[in-house]
């Protein structure tokens, strides 16, 4: 084990820090989805708002399930990474659609 500034590292702290980082990433993605949904609602685009709201809900359920499995079963974070990455791509597409629709209006 490598000492940092004269202190021995805690091997149990790294998984906890990683779990907290994934929780923050998931929270940011869900808030981004809700922001897209609220913006679409204000622009009177109900289909985009519904898709963004469903994406936020699906992301929340999937990633919380993945993180729980990772913590208890010791699986890697790859399924959570896949779900968060996919949701970011979907949200970017929805945001671009909103921006284009706002420019066209």
Describe the secondary-structure layout.
Blueprint: E1 3-4, E2 7-8, H1 13-42, H2 46-73, H3 78-104
Antiparallel strand pairs: 1-2
Helix pairs in contact: 1-2, 1-3, 2-3
Please give a structural write-up.
- By secondary structure, this protein is mainly alpha-helical.
- It has one domain (18-104).
- The chain has three helices and two strands, in the order ββααα.
- It has helices spanning 13-42, 46-73, 78-104; strands spanning 3-4, 7-8.
- Strand 1 (3-4) and strand 2 (7-8) form a beta hairpin.
- Helix 2 (46-73) packs antiparallel against helix 3.
- The chain is elongated.
- The protein starts with a strand and ends with a helix.
- 22% of the residues are buried.
- It is a multi-pass membrane protein.
Concise overview:
With 105 residues, the protein is mainly alpha-helical. Helix content is 81%, strand content 4%. A two-stranded antiparallel ribbon has the order 1-2.
Defining key terms:
single chain; 105 residues; mainly alpha; two-stranded antiparallel sheet; elongated; DUF202 domain-containing protein; transmembrane; membrane
Q: In order across it, which strands form the biggest sheet?
A: 1-2
Rg measurement, Å: 18 Å
Mean pLDDT: 77
List unreliable stretches of 5+ residues.
none
Helix content: over 70%
Number of strand segments: 2
